[in-house]
Amino acid sequence: MGRLPRWLLLGLLIRILLIPFHHPWDLQTWYNMFVDLAHDHSPYETLRYLTYSTRSLWGLMQLEGVKTLPVGQELFYEYYAYPPLPLVIYYPLAKIYARFHPLHYQFVVEGTLAAHHVPLFMLGLLKAPLILADVGIAAILWRASGEESARAYMLNPLIILVSGAWTIEPLMILPTLIALYFATRDRYELSGFFLGLGVLTKWMPAVLWPAVGIWLLTTRASWPRQLAFHSVFLATCAAGLAPLWDGTRLVVQFHSFRPGANLTPHILLYVLAQFHNADVAWYYHILSPFVGMITLPLLLGGAYLTQLRKGLDLLQGSCLATVAFLLGSKVVNEPYVCILLPMLLWEQALRPSETRRFLFKAAYALPLAFATLNVPIPFFAIPAYLQVASWTPSADYWVALLRRAVPGPWHALALAILAFSFVALMLYAWHILAVEVGNETVRATARGSNPDRHRPDRAYPALG
Amino acid sequence: MDRILIAIGLTALILLSARTLHNLSVISATDAPQELRLEGSKLTALYTLNSGMNKPAILNARGDALVEFSGWDSYVTVDGVTTDLWSHAFNIELDRARDRAFMTWSSVPLRRDESSPERMRRYQIQQVLILRGSQANVEYYIIPNEPVHTVTLTIGVYKWYMRDLQRVGNMFSFMAPNLTRTEAEQHMQPRRKTLVTIRPLIAPESVHSLMNQYGAYAVNFSFQVSTPRTYERTPVAIFAIAADDEAFPSIR
């Protein structure tokens, strides 16, 4: 106990104190996922039911403009839209919880605010794996790039907000980081397996698969070893997705039809809605998904081509692929940025520079500022308030509060400025990672163990 | 090599674009058919979209109408304002893969027409129909968009005419002949009859049947809920409709 560093204890303490706090909508998802699992019901079936129910609703948005977008009809309900691995992780916890407490579904209609009372015990069970995953990520970072990186991760405010009170990002980051670590240690089969686990937790690590593949190509890894990496990765994904293929297809549809939002130029939809009275359904349901379908493969393709041509190493290639995803994706919710942060810390430890330090700080500060305005931040306290409240207002009260707190046009403009700043930052990150690749300073420890700069597979000394 | 990669990439992008635009157009298209059919394994739900009846009609495998849920003669009273369901705006979505239909009535146009719109509450009534073999479940929910105190929903379930109508508690059973209303009023003989059972799974406040000189033709069920939560679906009424004698043999 005495050997545990203080920053780790502080990080754990903050996360434990954050247990009663949560993003209201996401908490609704996790709560009802527990209900589904406790009743042996597939969350994908619940997603399907809620989606058709949502499509039949008519006039809700015209009446309220709750979501501030004058769109008459939503095409999907935002419920559990992840791959199946989190269900496996939470299944036993949901069963344990259900042994002590009855569980009933609680849903509000799409587009409004979810303010449900969720017992503290369930919040604890939900967050325990996330806290453990954060510790695991810190441990990997410590081993790969030193204590400073681990501390910076554990005490990072965006990471704390996301893993302590928002989504299951740490469950995805941990296997992804392990995959990269094993790849740098020439253990490609394990790397493929853990990258598969990352993809089975959230879809985003899939963009790293080609990055690792290109790195194996450029480092001239033997063909059987490359084949082993790809085979294990694909087999892991197939084994996880095949049993729930029907649900997986629905989730993929959800993501493909989803309109753009948040830290992307698609924020203009929200701005447009403030100054334009017409129904923006065409922009929302057709133009935005279409633009997203073009930009994502285009930018990812550009990143992979850059990695191939410049012979970027694994970490640079992975960072660049993630940056390309954040630039090209039509939806970049604030938690999505979290996967980039530990990679940037690792990269910064290998090639320390002021620009990389700035990049890391800006990469978490902008999404944090965006979340503060967008959610907005006081709403994370609603679940905590509901733990002690004798008066539990219904959703309309919170919606009215939101409207008073954030007048539409100014809110939209402020978010748009932050979103475009983030896009500019990602373009700058691309420049740093791809264009300034030859100018970085390699840290002494890394340089010492890296006699051949053209063999990046030897560029990752264990620092733990 | 670069040129080949770029050419392949652009071709793939153009194909993807065309397919995506097509898919997006299909999903956002507003189709206006006269009727919709949801076909289950043994029962079919028929929605007539330009009439206040058949919301839906439930047909057996031979196409005989067993019961019709009425829009004209179903009413919702929200905090003292009563309106028939057909006067609301409605929307319908079919989940054919799961034999489910979702239909929602909204008070939006009623508020626009009302001289004092504040009297007319903002709400939606959702009907979910699920076909399972020879049974159909029809569920009604209220979704208030503002605080609401009392909701009374009266659902008219029709069949011209219900022969041998029997009531056991709140459960009704009758024989449904394969006749239209006109044929039945001309005293034509049916070629076949189906035993139909209607069982409300939420206890109604009141139930009464409607009759004329030709016989019983409807049963009205009234349900009430108080202070439903805003923006949440609160169940108001649930019916289990069974055809033939498979589901409820005890009341044959």
Any overview of this molecule?
The complex is a heterodimer of chains A (464) and B (252). With 464 residues, chain A is mostly helical. Chain A has one domain. Chain A is built from 22 helices and two strands. Chain A has helices spanning 6-17, 24-38, 43-56, 60-64, 85-100, 120-145, 147-154, 157-165, 169-184, 188-201, 208-218, 223-241, 245-257, 268-275, 281-310, 314-328, 340-350, 354-374, 382-388, 395-405, 408-435, 444-448, and strands spanning 261-262, 331-332. In chain A, α9 (169-184) packs antiparallel against α10 (188-201) and α18 runs antiparallel to α21. The longest helix of chain A has 30 residues, at 281-310. Mean pLDDT of chain A is 87; it is low at 65-70 and 438-459. Mean pLDDT of chain B is 87; it is low at 246-252. The N and C termini of chain B lie far apart (78 Å). Chain B has a 16-stranded antiparallel β-sheet that branches. In chain B, 40% of the residues are buried. By secondary structure, chain B is of the alpha+beta class. Chain B has a single domain (34-251), classed as Beta-galactosidase, Chain A, domain 5 (Distorted Sandwich), CATH 2.70.98. The interface between A and B is large, with 39 and 42 residues.
